[in-house]
Each structure stands twice: as C-alpha cells, then as structure tokens.
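Dear Dr. K.,

Following up on our conversation at the group meeting, I've run the structure prediction for histidine kinase from Streptomyces azureus. I'm pasting the input sequence below exactly as I used it, so you can double-check it against your construct before we proceed with anything downstream. Let me know if the numbering doesn't match what you have in your notebook.
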Amino acid sequence: MSPTPPARRLRLGLPRRVFSQVLLMQVAIAAGVAVLATGLFLAPLSNQLDDQAMRRALAIAQTTAQQPGLAEEVRDTPPSPNGPVQKEAERIRKATKAEYIVVMDWRGVRWSHTDPNQIGGIVSTDPGQALAGKDVMEIDSGTLGRSARGKVPLRDSDGTVVGAVSVGIAYDSVRARLIHAIPGLLAYAGGALAVGALAAWLISRRVHRQTRDLAFSDIASLLSEREAMLHGIREGVVALDRTGRIRLVNDEAQRLLGIGDAVVGRSPDEALGAGRTADVLAGRVAGTDLLTVRGQRVLVANRMPTDDGGAVATLRDRTELEQLGRELDSTRGLIDALRAQDHEHANRMHTLLGLLELEMYDDAVEFVGEVVGDHRATAEQVTERIEDPLLAALLVGKATVAAERGVALWVSDRTRLPDRLIDPQGLVTVVGNLVDNALDAVAGKPHSRVEVELRAEGRTAILRVRDTGPGIPPEHRELIFTEGWSTKKPPAHRERGIGLSLVRRLAERQGGSATVGEAHGGGAEFTVVLPEALAEPGPEPALTVPSAPQTTKEES
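The predicted structure tokens came back this morning:
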C-alpha cells in the first residue's frame, strides 16, 4: 500500500507577476485613500451639522425670548396648558419645526412644553447658566431624548432675568441629514476609486511592457547577475544614457581607461578629455572594431545603441596583440634581410673563391678587408654617437635592413646622445616607428635615403628623422597622428594607423611634442621633442692619489 502524499499547503500571498502586483497595490492604495478621504470628510461634516443645529436652536430661543409680554406673563400668570405662554411657544415651535420650546421661570418650572402634562414641573436639565444671564449651546439628553439645544435668559422690560427659554432640535434630524449626505459622498468616492483603478491599470500595463512580465524576484536576480557579470568579465563596458552621460563603467573599463567611479554622470569629453577615445564612446566615430589609443594601451572599441536612446560601448585591450604584430613585422623584415644577406654572402664567397683560384691573394685580402670594414664602420659610427646600447643596437639593425632594401640609412654628424636616458624603451619605440615609416616611404625609389639625428640639449632629447620620399601634404600633417588613419594598406594580422599615434602619445606623456614638416630637398622630416628625457649628469669620479707608506721607527 503506497503512502498517501502529504496535503499541499495553500500558500496565500501576492502574485508573482509585476503587472498583477503593481495593479493590486495601486488599487489598494486608491481604495485606502478613498476611504480615508471619506472618513476625513464625514468627521467635520458631522461636527458642522451639530454646530448648525445648536446655532439654529439658539436663534429660535433668542427670538422666543424677545416676544413682547412673554416675560411679564411668566412673572404674573401661573403655568397652565391653556395659558398664553404655552400658546405662544407652541405657535413658534410649529413655525420653526423645532422639537420643543420650553419657557421656564427663575425656579426652573416649565410654563410651556410639547407635552401639556409636563407644564408646571421642574425641567430635567440644569438651567443655571441661562438663569445666570448666559446664552448656552449644547448637545444633551432630556425628557424628549437627545437634541441640540439653545438656552437664553428671559428678561422683563427692566432687564431683570425672570426665567429662561430652552429650544431643542431633534438630533435624529441632524443624523438624517448626515446619512442623507453619505450616499452622494460614497458616489464621489466610488468614482474616484474607479478613476484610480483605471490609472493603476494603465500604469501597470506600462510597467508590464517595460519589465517584460518579469517578477520582482526575477528582476532582482537579473540585477545581481548583471553586476557579477559586468565586474567579472575581462572586457571593459561603458554604458551611456540618452543624454550622452556615463551611467555605468565596470572595473575593467576603469583599468583600461585609467579612470575611477567619479566619472559616472559626466560626459566622455569631461571624463577622458578631448580625443578619439571620447569620440568613439560618444558615437561621433562610426564603425566596428574601432582602434583607439589610451595612454600606452591600444584598445578596440565597439558601440551599440540601446532602446532607451543610450548606448553601451565595449573595450578590448589589444596592446599585446599590437606588439606581437609589430614583432612579426620586424621578424619578417629580419628574415628578408637575412635572406638577402645570404645571397650577398654567397656572391662575396664566390668572388673570394675566384680570387684565390686565380692566385690573386693580395686582391683577396683587400676584398675581405673592405667587406669587414664597411660593417665595422657602420657599427662604430653609431656607437660613437649614441651611447645608449638599446638605441645603438636598434639603429645598427635598421641600417642592415635598410641596406638590403636598397636604402641608405645615415646617422647625422650632429647626433650626440649620452647614456642617461630615463625611459630608453619609450625612445626605442619612437625611433623604431619613425624609421620604419621612413623606410616604407622611400622603398623602391632611386637614390633613397633616411637620415636619423639624435641629440641632447641639457635634459631634453631631440629626434629628427628625414627621408627622401614624397613627403606629407600640409593638409594631412595632423591627420597622420590620428589613430586609425593611414595611407597604406593594412596587413592581414593588424591595423594600420597606430605607430605615429603612439609616437605622439609617448611624446605628450613626457610633456613633449611630435610634428612633421618638409625636409630640405624634399621628403618628410619628423621632429620629436622630449623634455627631461635624460637624467642629470652625475659628478665626475674623484681621482685618488695613493699616499706614501709611513715608516715606523723600527724601519727607520
């Protein structure tokens, strides 16, 4: 016999859908407001009706007390159901539709009453204040039940208080007026509730469309997952609102752009400064996989608009890939140079072999000396003028590559650079990029030549690279330093238009500049100025003279 399944518990609570929850809460709020407004209106209405009834009773009492001869009749005649006081009081009561009008003497004995049997008896409520000459308004209970009352003193022609007049308005009539007003008030409240329910439905429909019918718990989970994803991925994410201001930036974007959380609420221009990176984030540059340089980093940016008019930009770090691409270019150039040197070396060996076979030994020795001397002269020329080993090695290698490409690479006679560079790696990047661009510009042209000048003026390093190529048109002399701009077809493995941009960024980072102009005799001349690129020269080492050994008395 299988066990019986446990009974399912009935779970009561709010529905899961946002649409239903918002509608239910708003209808509840509208109903609560309607009930509260009705209660707040009824409370003063009841008090207002009570006050009106008491004032009406007081006015009738004052009118009755001012009737001519009434005070004298109370003073001079005995109380009687058929007396003149009873007749006058009943006349006024019927005319004003009051519940009762009681006229009493100074002892509180009734002279009039709606029940003739009560005439001559003592009033049931205390008339002391009225007999003392004061007007009284109150809600009280008497022989005729609960009523709104007005009591005034009754004075004779001399102004002496001889009695009092008490007038009552039935409290049931006041309550009837209040109850009569309630249906209309409830109708207004119901109409307001209906309007509120309709507005709640419309708002809920809008929320339903915007939240795509997700539950609040689902929205909270999505937000938590979004935060974890944004701050966990190794790709920069920058979100902008419809006004173009940054509303979200994750940890990786802060690292790549060199910014902090304080940029939230600011525009890209305010957060990053004017430049291509700000233009890409703001959408002023269109396209996919846009290259931009931020500091020493090469970034690939993509921007996608969102439905609310904003946009989300993603950033990927391509610095290492760009460096690998440049190393690949250098490796390919080196392989081409080695291949050319192999052919040249084979030709020289064949020449040397021919000289030896012809027994022209002196000519062979001279030929070997010339070949070795040319290479040694180039290396010595560079190392004598450039004392930094990294830069010297770079230029010696570039000279070999240039020779194989049929280009003469010269180091200017004005070149003098001591071994005091603060950032030799940065200057190697600058020189390498400029020399490579110059070699590309003059490749394949007759009598092509590239000249490099490196000199120090105090702590400032000045670099000039001249070539005999076609030069740079004046209208392009600023564009060539823009990321992504190039006149050459990019290779398959990387983008063009980064090298010169890096050169300018490196120069500006040190407070310097990078410009291009026209070289003497045609071609382009690039000038890079790097203030404070060299360290202060150290003190000259002091020459120590060994002192003569002192002799002791025993030695003397």
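Two things stood out to me. Residues 1-12, 489-496, 540-556 have pLDDT under 50 and may be disordered. The chain has three domains: 21-178, 233-317, 321-530.

Best regards,
J.T.
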